[in-house]
Amino acid sequence: MRNRRSRHSSRASSSPLALAVALTLALAPAARAHDDHAPPIVTTPTGGQIVYFPKEAQFLLDVRTEQVAVHTLETHLQVPGKIVPRTDRYAALFPPVAGRVTAPPGGLPLVGARVRKGQTLALIRQSLSGTESTQLASERIKADAAIATARATLEQARRDLARVQSLGGAVAEKEVQRAELAVKVAVEDLSRAERERSLFVGADAHTGRLSEFTITAPLDGVLVQAHASVGEQVDTGKVLFTILDPRVVWVEASVFADDVARVEAARSATLHTEAYDSERFTARLFNLGQLVDESTRTVKVIFEVDNAAGKLRPGMFVEVAIGSGGKQDVLAVPDAAVVEVEGRRLVYVHAAPEEFVAREVVLGAREDGLYAVKHGLTAGERVVVSGTYQLRSAR
Predict the structure, then answer these.
(1) What is the pLDDT of residue 201?
(2) Which of 189, 245, 334, 337 has its CA 20 to 30 A from that of 236?
(3) Tens digits of per-residue pLDDT, 341-384?
(4) How distant, in Å, are the alpha carbons of 43, 44, 53, 246, 358 from that of 395?
(5) Residues of the chain falling short of pLDDT 50
(6) What is the distance, to the nearest Å, from the Cα of residue 90 to the centroid of all Cα atoms in its chain?
């Protein structure tokens, strides 16, 4: 029994994180002893939360801080953005009618295949349910009956006309004109009935099959989605194919209404994404919205990017640095100090030996691993640059 307890104690003590957590819990009363009325986590008058973290736990978890200082950075108007397809270079294809999917010559295209405008992607053989087939047969019988009636009427009108004409001057001219008009109307009625019947050409009441429709590519691009299988029964609400031309994409972002003039003057932006950390992409202003969102007081802006290499993919999040303000001395913090929580950016300020304050900040441009600070910090304050995850968990 003693050996089992010894091994258990050895395993528990082998985890620094577990030991730190246990130590934090054990020393919490000592931390609160500084102020009998202070709980382990309290909220400051400015809205930041105070997190108590014993020095021993800070040492074990390698919590380190750096001083907020002034740095020389390139200043931009920096906002988050999202890559989206350009609307005229993106297409979702639906079947025009319910039916079964059949393959064109060469087979159905696969995801990732390049397609050309006008290329046949699939064929849809229209099919009907049993009820619809019965109704179709009934409508076709009615159309056949209408044609038979129109032909009989026309034949009778022609006989009447021939009879009147054979009487010569024994009948009034009006009678002849009336007979001629009846023939003309009967011809038009027959023609209309035949046109209506032609709608059912190719329809098979037994198989319920009407006709075949072709699904073609409306633009050149890449097949990014394919949901069609040979023999599958599909309806008009299902997307069969999605085509994207990735050579040009858009970036959607939102700027505060007060910055609209700055965006108009810049006309361009530089994009950065974590996927290609060492690269920067140039974008040009495509559209600046005319409406201000009442809830956020922001305006939507769209930039266009040449994407011949296909690196920027719709759905990616990017940092959009709009324009160039030149080199300026600004207050800055390392990007390792910034934590994003529910769309807000926070830093942990080392307020006392065992106290950290989670404070929301407004950041500017990012350059060389530093964020310019617009609001929320002052020079000389110390922020956590290592161990932010543990402090966030403590919150």
Answers:
(1) 59
(2) 245
(3) 776 889 999 989 889 998 999 887 777 788 888 888 999 999 99
(4) 11, 14, 11, 43, 9
(5) 1-14, 17, 21, 25-47, 205-209
(6) 12
Tell me: do 234 and 112 sit in the same domain: yes
Q: What is the pLDDT of residue 328?
A: 79
- In this structure, are 353 and 259 located in the same domain? no
What does the DSSP assignment read for 10-75? HHHHT-HHHHHHHHHHHHHHHHHTT-TT--SEEE-TTSPEEEE--HHHHHHTT-EEEE-EEEEEE-
- Same domain? 24 vs 49: yes
Per-residue confidence (pLDDT) for residue 50, from 0 to 100 = 85
278 lies in the same domain as 156: no
pTM over 0.70: no
What would the two tokens of residue 305 be?
């990017």
Assign 177 to helix, strand or coil. helix
DSSP per-residue letters across 86-119: -GGGEEEE--SSSEEEEPPTT----TT-EE-TT-
Q: Which two tokens stand for residue 308?
A: 């011949």
CATH value at residue 270: 2.40.30.170
Query: What counts of helices (H) and strands (E) characterise the chain?
Result: 7, 25
Q: Are residues 82 and 103 in the same domain?
A: no
Residue 368's pLDDT is: 78
Q: How many domains does the chain have?
A: 4
In this structure, is residue 158 part of a structural domain?
Answer: yes
Q: How far apart are CA 277 and CA 105, in angstroms?
A: 44
In a domain, 37, yes or no: yes
Query: What 3-state DSSP class applies to 273?
Result: coil
CB 274 within 8 A of CB 266: no
Q: Are residues 32 and 136 in the same domain?
A: no
Q: Would you say residue 260 lies in a domain?
A: yes
Task: Tell me: do 312 and 294 sit in the same domain.
Answer: yes
Q: How far apart are CA 320 and CA 300, in angstroms?
A: 13
pLDDT value at position 140? 81
What is residue 202's predicted lDDT score, i.e. its pLDDT?
53
Residue 167: its pLDDT value, please? Answer: 79
Tell me which residue range forms the domain holding 173. 130-198
